[in-house]
């Protein structure tokens, strides 16, 4: 099972919006509405931000939103803040009844 | 409030078996799904597998031949065993409540190093 493809890095200035893509196939992202997004700060455990493509986890700011089109899912962070600087990973359920993570994206707030 | 207490660091030699536990406080290991995730140094996350409340397991195809996830209701803890380890198994190992699709509580992670 190959990892889902994410850009290695995305950057933006405070207040701006950025979007992170997550590309898979019809056997994972495109075939199921079970895409999740995680935020991970250095040295910390991952934190679930979004589940089932669009559902924000409890306590997650509404500055975080997500969507899916075909085999590509996207996470948008609006009103970028310094605290958003972290690594972000997508994940998806797969046709093999397993799960796979994306390659990860480092978000830098300029 | 559920707490997953992971502690200690592991040092293993190649070919040995990795054995980790994840005690559950404030909840019952038999009431939820649980997952194990790992992250090699400076690399991305990898889903290892999950166990259901009934004890049904799913594993990553790349690890399936070497991994066992189990729940011990008497000690209220999760267990992960990975046999025949190599340097490629060096990683921080996390346990969490839920599935990768949706989860809430995570352990703080425990580093495991495989080196001769």
Mean pLDDT of chain B: 94
Element pattern of chain A in H and E? EEEEEEEEEE
Secondary-structure-derived class of chain A: mainly beta
User: The biggest beta sheet of chain B, please?
Assistant: 7 strands, mixed
Rg of chain A computed from alpha carbons, rounded to a whole number of angstroms: 13 Å
Q: How many alpha or pi helices of chain B?
A: 0
**General form of chain A:** globular
Q: Could you list the spans of chain B in which at least 5 consecutive residues all have pLDDT below 50?
A: none
Shape of chain B: globular
Largest interface: A-B, 26 and 23 residues
Helix content of chain B: under 10%
- Quaternary organisation of the protein chains: heterodimer
Number of alpha- plus pi-helical segments of chain A: 0
Order of helices and strands of chain B: EEEEEEEEEEE
Cα-atom radius of gyration of chain B: 13 Å
Write down how many β-strands of chain B occur, each being a DSSP E stretch of 2 or more residues: 11
Give the strand tally of chain A.
10
What keywords describe this structure?
heterodimer, A: 110 residues, mainly beta, 7-stranded mixed β-sheet, 3-stranded antiparallel β-sheet, 0% helix, globular, B: 116 residues, 4-stranded antiparallel β-sheet, 11 strands
Textual characterization of the structure:
The complex is a heterodimer of chains A (110) and B (116). Chain A has no helices and ten strands. Chain A is mostly beta strands. In chain A, strands 1, 3, 4, 5, 8, 9 and 10 form a seven-stranded mixed beta sheet that branches. The radius of gyration of chain A is 13 Å and the shape is globular. Chain B is mostly beta strands and 116 residues long. Helices cover 0% and strands 49% of the residues of chain B. Chain B has strands at 3-4, 10-12, 18-25, 34-39, 46-51, 57-59, 67-72, 77-82, 91-98, 103-106, 110-114. In chain B, strand 9 and strand 10 (103-106) form a beta hairpin. The N and C termini of chain B lie far apart (40 Å). The chains are: A mainly beta (110), B mainly beta (116). Chains A and B meet through strand 3, strand 4, strand 8 and strand 9 of A and strand 5 and strand 10 of B.
């Amino acid at each position: 099972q190959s990892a889902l493809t994410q850009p290695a890095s995305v950057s933006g200035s405070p207040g701006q919006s950025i979007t992170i893509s997550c590309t898979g196939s019809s056997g994972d992202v495109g075939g199921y509405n079970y895409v999740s997004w995680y935020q991970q700060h250095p040295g910390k455990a991952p934190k679930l931000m979004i589940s089932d493509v669009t559902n924000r986890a409890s306590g997650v700011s509404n500055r975080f939103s997500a969507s899916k089109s075909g085999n590509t899912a996207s996470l948008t962070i609006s009103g970028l803040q310094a605290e958003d600087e972290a690594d972000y990973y997508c994940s998806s359920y797969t046709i093999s009844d397993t799960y796979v993570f994306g390659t990860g994206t480092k978000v830098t707030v300029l | 409030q559920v707490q997953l207490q992971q502690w200690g660091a592991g040092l293993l030699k190649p070919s040995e078996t990795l054995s980790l536990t994840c005690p559950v406080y404030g909840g019952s290991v038999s009431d939820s799904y649980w997952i194990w995730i790992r992250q090699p140094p400076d690399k991305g996350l990898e889903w290892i597998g999950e166990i259901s409340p009934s004890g049904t397991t799913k594993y990553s195809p790349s690890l399936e031949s070497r991994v066992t996830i189990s729940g011990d209701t008497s000690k209220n803890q999760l267990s992960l065993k990975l046999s025949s380890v190599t340097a490629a198994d060096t990683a921080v190992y996390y346990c969490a409540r839920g599935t990768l699709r949706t989860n809430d509580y995570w352990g703080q992670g425990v580093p495991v190093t495989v080196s001769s």
